[in-house]
Design a protein that fits this description.
This protein is an all-alpha fold. The chain has one domain (about 10-90). The chain has helices at about 10, 15-35, 40-60, 60-80, 90. Helix 2 runs antiparallel to helix 3 (about 40-60) and helix 3 packs antiparallel against helix 4 (about 60-80). It is elongated. The N and C termini lie far apart (about 45 Å). The model is unreliable at about 1-10 and about 85-98 (pLDDT under 50).
Amino acid sequence: MHASESGDALMGEKTHNELLGETLIQSLFFLITARFHKNTSLVIYRAYVLWVNRCLAVRGRLADYQESAEIEGMHTTLITAMLPTNSLPLLLDGSRYT
């Protein structure tokens, strides 16, 4: 029996609902921040990537963390080609709003 099947609480991992709840809170933070940020579409994009990333990770735990990182990398590559150079720091680190 795999760790994800044997009960997350016993393994000290967060449950599916806890992870989705955290994801929702973090996504809302990005969306609220977007209201006050000059590059609104970029902040909304980061909220979207966070949501996709977490949903993939919740679905299959460790195996999908790698998959979600690869998907975020592809999204980052695509969006970077469409953004001004000065937007890159925010894209790479959603906590930087300078």
